[in-house]
Structures are given as structure tokens and as C-alpha cells.
User: What shape does this take?
Amino acid sequence: PTLNYLIRQIIIEMAEEEDILKELYDVAFTIDSATEQQDSNFEIILEAAKKTQTKARTLAARLIGKYIAKYTHYASKAIDTLLDLCEEDDVPIRLESIAAIPEIARACPDSTPRLADILGQLLQTENKNEVEKAKTALNALLSLETYATTHIIFTHAQQPDTNLRDSALDFIIHYIFPLKNKIEQDEKVLAMVVDSIRKLITKQGVKIEDVKALINFLASLKGVTPDHKLEILNSVNDSFEATEKEHIERLVHSFAASAPFVKADTPAITGLISNVTEKALPSYDQMDEQQKTKFINALAQISHHFHSDTAKRILPYLYPILLSLLPAPSSQPPIYDYHLLEACLYSFWALGVKALGFLRGLCGINIPTGQPADLAIDISHDEKKNLDARVTLFITKANEYHSKINSALKMSGTNKDKMDKIKQANEAINIDLILIKGILNNKRPDIELVYKNANQTPAPKASAAAASSSSSSSSSSSGKRKGKNPANKAKSSEEPKKEEITTETHVKPLPRSDGSGKARPAYGSVYVAPKRKLEEDENTTT
Assistant: This one.
């Protein structure tokens, strides 16, 4: 060391805070004006950071960040010094030290993992200002070194320490996920993020809100094949039994997120079927109303992809659910949840046409297929009577409801908003009527179904015998009938009690294609039947 350096060190050791501050400003002036930098100047700053005076140490932390680019070979010592300062009791010292960290990352990119680790640890502090400062610094590191910073934070999120994990996940959701486009454009980052999400959504202890956010982000990522997404989402429930409320929510949300990626020939569909038949359906009674709506909606979206063997595994669970949504005749007026009923009816129809013979024993619906194996199944006449009674009640109440709807429309006058709401309420019943008769007669439902938002909050259940005022308050729109509206003929058609429910018919099972090259429509899609088909089905659908 030079004599000048030694003298300065002695001055700093013995000086008061004002003298130290003056010395640091002199060092800063020397560094700014010098053409050749001397290591002794930066060492004085590092030494000043070890003193007890708050203002001196705060200034030293600021100068470390300012001049580290000129003394990159001191990066390790600078990081150690800032780390010590981050552990001080004085908040101003910690805040200034955190603010200096991104400057070291800019000057020395190789130090980013260590710096990200320090900042990630600081996210656990109770001081809100310090947490925000650490988030700002980490966000700066994300811009400089996306992969290294993201990898460190995801590593923190997988640790058993609850505070560290939760703070890391909060940063991931609010700061890393908004960089979605940047992540998708870098294959290395994308692969690391997807693998990290896979580990997190199957990890015990991760909050259900965080699991749902991770699943939603995974489902939205481009560059990840649908099969790979489905495989990961299926694995969510491998380590959990659907016995607790949180696990059921995890199961339902992952299943709903899987629906858009399901195809009949998807290899991962086997795991999905296992989750549905072995975990989701047996746990249906433990689900709350919102979970039931989300689950049945998702099932409706994918049910047409299942083969006959799968249909036979699902139908015994689905049929009791359908019966619970179609109350039996009693002294009390029935209440129908049209959102849930529509999705359940569609699922039952889509699965039923894959296993027509199986329906004979399950619910007594007999649609001859000509297959000896189907004929060998005994028809459940008692169950058939039970189903007929429920369906008859629904159709009767629906027709009564139609009548009240029409009266409400006349009373609404020229109030367009009120008329639109009443018509929307009317359409929900039309959908269910068409689906019921499609099930009983094996007809293709000629409707547009729009209840495919699995995350929607279930609508309030409505009494079929409610007054017209209650119908006008409904804001649920479930679909639009293509062709003639059954409601328009309600007043001229037969009385409800004379309406015939045909369950014995010789209509052939629907093929996979209708001859025009169009596959059977999925739940939520639009199928426009040919005019001849509409004329043939008019009596049934009306």
C-alpha cells in the first residue's frame, strides 16, 4: 500500500462521521477525474462500509454500486460487503445496499446467480419498503439475465421453508409470469420454467391459489405441445388423494385446465381418464357448487372424445348426478340448476351414444343396436319409470315456465333490456329440453352451447314454477337454438300432459361422422343441421 493510502486509512479509523463523509466524497471525485484507476480508492470505500456510522455506511453502499464497473475484479468483495450491510439493523443502510446490487450484476454478469439468491432471501423480510426494493432489484436482474434469475427464484419456490417458498411464488406470479412472451421466445428458459411448474404443482404445501396460477400459466404457454401440457396436468393428482377440500380444488382446476388439450388419440388421455373415474367422480359429493359446475362443464367439453369402454366407466357415476339435477315428483316445487343440468345432459348424451346397450341396464333407455351383446343386457324397467317421472316433471314445468316467459314478454312492453333478459332465461330451458329428448331418442342436439367457461361462478338455481318476475331477473344466457324456437310453438302445441316421451325407437346410433365429413359437435360448438334434418326432427325437438 502507498503511504497516501495508509494515511487515509488512519484518518478513517480515527475520524468522526463528517470527516469520513468528506473523505468518501474526495475519493469519489478522484475516481471520476482520474484517467487511470487505482485499487486503493475502491478499497477505501469498502473499508468505510465497515464503520459504525450510519450515513458513512449508506454512502459507501451507494458508491460501491456506482463504481463497481471500474473495479470488476473486486466483485466478490463488493458482494460480501453489501451482504453484510443488508443484515444491518438500520433500514437506510439496507435499502441503499439492495439498490446497489443490480449495478454489480450489470458490471459482472457471472455474479447474477449469487445476487439473485441474496435478493430472493430478502423477499422474506417484514419491512415492506425493503421487500419492494428487493423486488425492484430482482426485476432488474430479470432484464439482465433472465435464465439465471428465473432459475434461482423457482429454486427458492421449491424449498421446504414456507416463508421462502411463498415469497418466491409471489414474485414468480407477479413479475416472472408477465414476461410470458420473452419466456416463450427462449427455448432454454421455456424448458426450465415448464419443468419447474411441473414440480411445483405436484408439491405438498404449495397454496392452492398458487397452484391454480401455475396451472393457468402453463396452459397459456405457446411452444409447449398440448400432449405435454396434458401429461403435466394429469400428474398434478398422482401424489394426492381427493379427500381434503384443497386437494379436491387442485383436482378440479387441473382437470378443467386440461379440457382444451384433450383429443381422442392423445396418448395422455389414459391418465386423464384415471383421474376422472378414480378420483374426481367418486369425490363429486364432496365438491362445493362452484367446483361441481367447473368439473361438469369440463367433462362436457371432452366427453365426446371418449371411447365406449371409458363411457361405461363414467356413466354409472354420471347418471346419479343427472338424477340429482332432475328432481322426482313431490309436494315441493322442483328447483333446477340450468347451468349444471345443461352440461350434465350433454355429457350424458355424448357418452350414452358410445354405449347404447349399456344404457339398458343403467337407466332403462332401450335403443336397439342390433348387437347381440347389447341385447343380452336386461332392461332396468324400475329405473326407466324413475327417469320417465323426472323427465315428465321437467318438461311439464318447463312448458309452464315458457308460458310465464311469454306473459312476461308481453308485459315488458318496449323495454328492450328487460325483454333481452327474459329471452335469455327462456333459452336455458330450450337447451335442456332439446338435450333431454336427444338423449331419449338418440337425436343429435342442434344447438349452440356456450357454458364452456369452467371458471365461472355457478348461477343461482331457479324454481321451474317461479313467477315471471323472477325469470326477468335472470341474466344467464346458455345458448341459441338454430332453426325454429320451441317456445314459439308452446301455445299452439299439445298440452304438456299429452306429450309423449319416446324411449323405444329404432333410430340408428349416430356415427362418428354424419356423411358430410363433419364430426359430432363438441360441447360449446355450433352444429347447423341441414334443413331436411330439421324437418324430420321438428316434432321431437318441439
Summary: Strands lie at 335-336, 447-449, 462-463, 479-481.
